[in-house]
Amino acid sequence: MSNTEVEETIKRLSANKYVKEVLIVNKEGQTIKSTLDETLSKKYSDLITKLVEQTTFVINEMDEAGTNDLSFLRVRTKKHEILVAPGISQLTISRRYFGTNNTIRIFNQRRLQFLEAEANSFPNDATKQVEYYKELLRINNHNAVITRFERGNFAHDDECFRAYITALAKAGQADKVLPKIIQKLEQSGVTGVDGASTRATSTNDLVHTIVKSQGKKTIAEGGPSVTTSNAGNKENPIYVVIEGARGYMFWRALRWVGITFTYAFCIITFLSIAMENSGLLKTGGSQSEFEPSSQQVVKFSDVHGVDEAKEELEELVEFLKDPSKFTGLGGRLPKGVLLTGPPGTGKTLLARAVAGEAGVPFFFMSGSEFDEMYVGVGARRVRELFAAARRKAPSIVFIDELDAIGSKRNPKDQTYMKQTLNQLLVDLDGFSQTEGVIFIAATNFPELLDKALVRPGRFDRHVAVPLPDVHGRMQILSHHLKNVQISDDVKISVIARGTPGFSGADLANLVNQAAIQASRDGAQEVGMRHMEYAKDKILMGAERKSAIITNESKKLTAYHEGGHALVALYTPGALPLHKATIMPRGSTLGMTVQLPEMDKDNYTKKEFLAMVDVAMGGRVAEEMIFGKENVTTGSHNDIANATNVAKRMVTLYGMSDKVGPVAHPEEDMEHLSSQTKLVIENEIKSLLENAQIRVTNILKTHKDELHRLANALIEYETLTQEEIESVIKGKAINR
User: What are this entry's molecular-function GO terms (predicted)?
Assistant: First the structure.
């Protein structure tokens, strides 16, 4: 823009009645000169000439209140700005204004100060007050409008009152709007019907003014327009929509999604349960779940140590091979066979041997496989299992761990808990002897089964599968050692006699452990020492060679175990001594093991007293060598075992003269009189004290032997029966 154009613009602005002054401000917003200063007016042309050469001249024209007048003029350089400020409130600065925020702020402040000064100078001029009120509303200073209007020191008209009502509405005091309007109308003296009509009309006008103002604001901010014509009456009501904050809308949407997913999950779960129980989800190949087992065929020749149980099951094989042999004379085969016995005795193996010998399909399931989280699944699986077995008849159905579904029913149990058992009872009783389907079940706890399940007609035969005796153990060991390379020093009879109480699974584990140890030692064959190592590991636990044991603790343990060993050697009726060790095994620091030469089914009073004496030997040895004040907690298990044996002698076996041949089981103790309880307690205590006296006499008599045995245990850590007998005689050990 040239100097001539600038001067013409300045002249045009000077002629405009709205232009009050021209400001020159620096970059920091400080006023340098004003047109109110006469010196500036004289030098104004020269100043414009100098600045315009390096200046970008910007002119913004506003079309506000129906005018096309130039609102302001700004000449900007690197250091200064020349502003032409408007003097009316209707002309507002556009947001497109190309200037600094600081400049706009100063411009607004000076304009507000000017209008305030005008309003204060002419308090009776309502027009001045309206201009000031509108400027305050423009900068959102609503409280200032409310305070000034309510002060009552300045003139006001309807325009001022409208500004006041608008300020109340925008300041969040909308509840005061209607009372103020009514008060205004009452002050104007409007009464009667016409007054009411006029009051309503005036009220509507004011409301329309507020709505129109809000609508213009919405349009200016880019929102939807508000129609103000005839709004707010009965025919054309105003609809208000309240929107929450952005965070509220987010949590509201999140809650809606969560509720939707929850309902969907519940509906899908319900439908899946209903469809599964109704059979709609079944496919043609669903019966593949109940296909015969295809594992390796087992014969009766693979079963050892349970000859009596094997003989009973051979009848089932004959029935499956030739049913007419039994039905021809009017006999019928048992519908079900229940195998009972301790774990690892071969119950499952016997059932597989029956299927293998008969050559019929074998259906196997565990008791825990029937029930799941859905009600009715167990009963359905029982039906499908027996249906599949009937289609494959002749066949065998074997359920292991029957107590999982056949436990005794309780009237307090829920109905769904009984469905599986009830279905099993129905299917068992529904068999006929010509169907060719044999039901075999196994359990370790026959006493837990429901009486309706084990009655004749369902389980006609109960077969006990006990732990193998010494001959059975020899057969089992011979069977498992067939595929193991053993040395000539392995004596199966010795191993069988030294493993009383071992089940078939324990013996198989013993052979496997021995073979593994021989491989670790690099031996070509499994020797007797490997078998002994495996037996000791099963009986006493694995050695803890890395455990750090002090010399004092090792010495105390040696005397403790030596006391057990000597009492076992010199007490009549005690079980033969097998081995003594102070090598930590499992959770113990030492151990003395006794093994019977043959299987024992019952015990005498003499043998029970010997058990108590041997158990007390360790504690008495500690007291004798180290004193009563140095007795350790290592004998707590020995005392518990001795007390248990003495208690059984008094309360169960009638081996007390004072209590007599009366049985007092543990569950009946609370019903006994206090006098009887006192007699029982005194008898138990007397047995333990007498045992302590006997053990003390034995160890005092053989005190030198106790020292020799303890020193040998400290040196060699583990001693066999032969080595113990040599040590106490003063002989050397050859290793």
Answer: ATP binding; ATP hydrolysis activity; ATP-dependent peptidase activity; metal ion binding; metalloendopeptidase activity
Q: Is the pLDDT of residue 554 over 70?
A: yes
The b/e string for 346-363 (b: 16+ C-beta within 10 A; e otherwise) is bbbbbbbbbbbbbebbbb
Please state, in angstroms and rounded to a whole number, the distance separating the CA atoms of residues 65 and 63. 7
Match 């050469």 to its residue by tokens.
53
Active-site residue identified among 561, 622, 705, 723: 561
Cβ atoms of residues 393 and 437 within 8 Å: yes
SS percent in the chain: helix, strand, coil, step 5: 55, 10, 35
d(CA 200, CA 198): 5
pTM (global) more than 0.85: no
Residue range 471-509, pLDDT digits in tens: 999 999 999 999 899 998 898 988 998 888 899 999 999
Instruction: Say which range, 224-228, 240-244, 260-264, has the weakest mean pLDDT.
Output: 224-228
Phi, psi dihedral angles at 516 (to 5 degrees): -65, -40
Mean pLDDT estimate for the chain = 77
Cis status, amide bond into 572, omega within 30 of 0: no
Please identify which residue in the block is written with the tokens 């004092």: 552
Check: CB of residue 622 under 8 Å from CB of residue 571. Answer: no
In the prediction, which pLDDT does 436 show? Answer: 67
Question: Cα dihedral angle (367, 370, 373, 379), rounded to 10 degrees?
Answer: -130
Helix-helix angle 636-651:605-626, to 10 degrees? 150
Q: What tokens appear for 361 in the block?
A: 């399909």
Look up 670 and say whether it is catalytic: no
Which residues, in sequence order, are CB contacts of 10 under 8 Å at separation 6+? 22, 44, 48, 73, 84
**Residue 296's pLDDT band (cuts 50, 70, 90):** low
Write out the DSSP string of 493-529: HHHHHT-TT--HHHHHHHHHHHHHHHHHHT-SSB-HH
CB 699 within 8 A of CB 624: yes
Give the CA count within 13 Å in the CB-facing half-sphere of 66: 0
Could you give the CA distance from residue 289 to residue 385 in angstroms, rounded to a whole number? 9
Q: Which long-range contacts (CB under 8 A, 24 or more apart) does 548-551 make?
A: 549/584, 549/589
CA 618 vs. chain centroid, Å, equals 47
pLDDT in tens, 392-443: 878 888 999 898 888 888 777 666 667 888 888 888 876 554 466 788 999 9
Q: Please, are residues 563 and 699 in contact by the beta-carbon 8 Å criterion?
A: yes
- Cα 501 to Cα 481, 498, 558, distances in angstroms: 19, 10, 28
Which of 503-515 are b and which e, b meaning 16 or more Cβ less than 10 Å from the residue's Cβ? bbebbbbbbebbb
